[in-house]
Amino acid sequence: MERASGYFTYFIRQVGTGFIKIGRAADPLQRIRALQGCCPQDVELLLVLPDSGETRERVLLERFRTSHFRAEWYYETDEILSFVRERSSLCLIEEIKDAAARAAVAAWEGRTMRSHKIMQARMEAGKARLASRSQQEAK
Questions:
Q1: pLDDT string in tens for the chain (139-residue length)
Q2: Are 28 and 48 in contact (CB under 8 A)?
Q3: Domain extents for the chain?
Q4: Which of 117, 97, 93 is nearest to 105 (CA)?
Q5: Does the predicted TM-score (pTM) go above 0.85?
Q6: Are strands 68-70 and 73-75 parallel, antiparallel or unpaired?
Q7: In the chain, what is the greatest distance between 2 CA atoms, to the nearest angstrom?
Q8: Is the Cβ–Cβ distance between 67 and 84 less than 8 Å?
Q9: Cα 97 from Cα 47, distance rounded (Å)
Q10: With contact defined as beta carbons under 8 Å apart, do 9 and 24 qualify?
């Protein structure tokens, strides 16, 4: 299944509360980290699907409207859990984690390269200062 919109529909459970959030994000892992910072309970990513067709967020929000609590939060019902279980083989969590890991490595490599260049420039500047001092002392 292709990511037609570039976004994903996700199901996140707030552990121990009986609530599930159904939402849409370009980066569900970043979204779960943001939610974890706001929620006193742990949150877990249950399902990530392409935001298209029958898995489009607004279609799912309408489908589960009888389980609605408030905003994008829903009661953890058998209907929602069954939907999550039935689509677990379509879940893109691992692909998203892999992409996030590759992005993190690339960012780390970029920072390492910049740090190396900065260190090199500082060493060159230090050498130049030492050479300048040595020339002044020789006069």
A1: 443 467 888 999 999 999 999 999 888 888 888 988 888 888 888 888 888 877 788 899 999 999 999 999 999 999 999 999 888 776 666 666 665 555 555 555 565 555 556 656 666 666 666 667 667 767 6
A2: yes
A3: 8-91, 92-139
A4: 97
A5: no
A6: antiparallel
A7: 89
A8: no
A9: 13
A10: yes
